[in-house]
Write a structure and sequence with these properties.
With about 130 residues, the chain is an all-beta fold. Helix content is about 0%, strand content about 60%. The chain has a single domain (about 15-125), classed as Jelly Rolls, CATH 2.60.120. The strands form two sheets. A four-stranded antiparallel sheet has the order 1-8-3-6, with no helix packed on it. Strands 2-7-4-5 form a four-stranded antiparallel sheet, with no helix packed on it.
C-alpha cells in the first residue's frame, strides 16, 4: 500500500546549490537554508557529484535553528559515479520551521576535488509559508 503525500494549495519552488569539495580527505558541509522567515516543506532533493570518488559518501540531516539534528534523512549514501544522480523523493514531506536547514555532509575519502550539485524542491502555500 502506497502512502499518499499531503496535498496543499500553493506551489513548488526549485533551488539549486553547489558544494565545492576540495581534494583533501574529510567532511565538506553545505547548510541549505530553506526559508529564514517562514515554515515550509521539503518534498525532494537530488544530489549529483560531477566526479567519481571511490568510497566517498554523504549524509543529509534536518537541523533546527538551535543546531539540533531533528532527523537523519540519508546516511552513508555512496558516490557511485560521475554525473549519477541520487534522487530522494520523500514519502512524506519534511516539515521545516523558519530558520531550519538541510545539512549535506559529503565525506571525501578518495581525495578527489569535485563539485556536488544539489536541487531542492520546496513547497509553500500562496502566502509563502505553511
Amino acid at each position: 500500500m502506497a502512502l499518499p503525500k499531503r496535498v496543499m494549495v500553493g506551489g513548488a519552488y526549485y533551488k539549486g546549490y553547489v558544494l565545492a569539495v576540495g581534494a583533501g580527505p574529510g567532511d565538506h558541509i553545505l547548510n541549505l537554508m530553506v526559508m529564514a522567515d517562514k515554515s515550509c516543506a521539503i518534498n525532494g532533493i537530488t544530489i549529483v557529484p560531477d566526479k567519481y570518488g571511490a568510497s566517498d559518501h554523504f549524509k543529509l540531516e534536518h537541523v533546527n535553528s538551535s543546531g539540533t539534528v531533528v532527523a537523519l534523512i540519508a546516511d552513508n549514501v555512496y558516490n557511485v559515479g560521475a554525473h549519477i544522480a541520487w534522487m530522494f523523493d520523500f514519502p512524506a514531506m519534511e516539515l521545516m520551521d523558519a530558520g531550519d536547514i538541510l545539512r549535506l555532509t559529503y565525506t571525501n575519502v578518495a581525495g578527489i576535488a569535485m563539485n556536488v550539485y544539489i536541487n531542492l524542491e520546496r513547497l509553500t502555500t500562496k502566502d509563502g509559508g505553511l
